[in-house]
Specification:
By secondary structure, the protein is mostly helical. Helix content is 79%, strand content 0%. It has eight helices and no strands. Helix 2 (36-53) crosses helix 3 (63-99). The N and C termini lie far apart (85 Å).
Length: 180
């Protein structure tokens, strides 16, 4: 198909391309992101970008390949933004908490008051999967992200294990404080 430079013929050409390749384009985007609503949003962004860039389309390229390349780039942009947003929550939130005068949680106060030796003995009663993140966090001053990287676990799993470990420790630590 030959692209004419007048607006009406460009719109007709674009409409023909979308009718011909739209479904396969959407399926391709969906195969990349595996989320229907996200795929729909990205599909719309691809169509808008393609329409705006249509005057610069080089006829020697195949239009389907051109549309799919725009789709890949839109998906990469989305993943980059998503990764950046997640990085904020995984790293920067903890930095803000350390910088500000946040009131420590009661279990953190108790953990800090107990002697290190008694606490390590108490920690030995926990299963390794719960003990390891606590030791890394409180005794080796590792951040949650560092623990996640060291253990090859998602940060959400590290948080869950730390919470469960604290829940299991709470009654034992109360005994230590009462006896100490």
């Amino acid at each position: 198909m030959k692209i004419c430079k007048n607006k009406q013929s460009m719109e007709q050409y674009f409409e023909t391309c979308i009718l011909e390749h739209g479904k396969s384009l959407f399926n391709y985007i969906y195969s990349l992101v595996r989320h229907k609503e996200l795929a729909e949003d990205l599909y719309q962004e691809v169509l808008i970008s393609a329409y705006l860039a249509l005057p610069s389309f080089e006829e020697r390229a195949k239009v389907k390949n051109w549309l799919f390349k725009i789709a890949v780039n839109k998906c990469r942009d989305y993943w980059r933004k998503e990764k950046s947003a997640n990085r904020f929550w995984e790293e920067k939130v903890y930095l803000y908490a350390e910088d500000s005068n946040v009131i420590e949680q009661p279990e953190e106060l108790i953990l800090n008051k107990c002697s290190q030796e008694e606490m390590v003995v108490t920690l030995q009663d926990l299963p390794k999967m719960y003990r390891e993140p606590l030791l890394l966090f409180y005794y080796h001053n590792q951040t949650l992200m560092e623990i996640s990287n060291l253990t090859s676990l998602p940060i959400s799993t590290v948080k869950t294990r730390m919470r469960r470990a604290k829940d299991r420790l709470r009654p034992k630590v109360k005994e230590l404080v009462a006896n100490g």
